[in-house]
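Sequence and structure are no longer studied apart. To make this concrete, we show below a single chain and its fold as tokens.
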Amino acid sequence: MHSAAVTTEGDRIRWAELPGGDPARVYVHGLGATSPLYFAETAVHPLLAGRRSLLIDLLGHGHSDRPTSFAYTLEDHADALAAALRAAKVTGAEVVAHSMGGAVAVVLAARHPELVSRLVLVDAPGPADAGAGRSRQPGHRRVGVPRGRLAGGA
């Protein structure tokens, strides 16, 4: 288990890390979840394996600290996640995020664009300007993956 102090009080975000090549892939859980448990099977799937993978627990979740002085806004979560990624020497990551973690990832990409090369949002809000099936931003697109495809289903 890896960790980094991400607040002035020394509160720590913790993550499980799988070795592999760059760019790193960062997994961010949704509300009430923990990334190592939620994303472990996905991160080791043969179609996705081989990348350095960080399964991050946001503050207040899983193995990370639960500071009482932290505001727990999307912006605060994104800035704390940015501090953890910098401590882990991650730039240009592919960020895979579920639900509330997706909202945090969108804010992370907006506030710290050097840390994110791609966003994969699962059951999460997308960029505010995303239209039906496509974004107005160059290089952004929405795709659908049939249920069970990554889990080995038909």
DSSP finds three helices and six strands in the chain. The mean pLDDT is 85. Residues 2-122 form a domain with the Rossmann fold fold (CATH 3.40.50.1820).
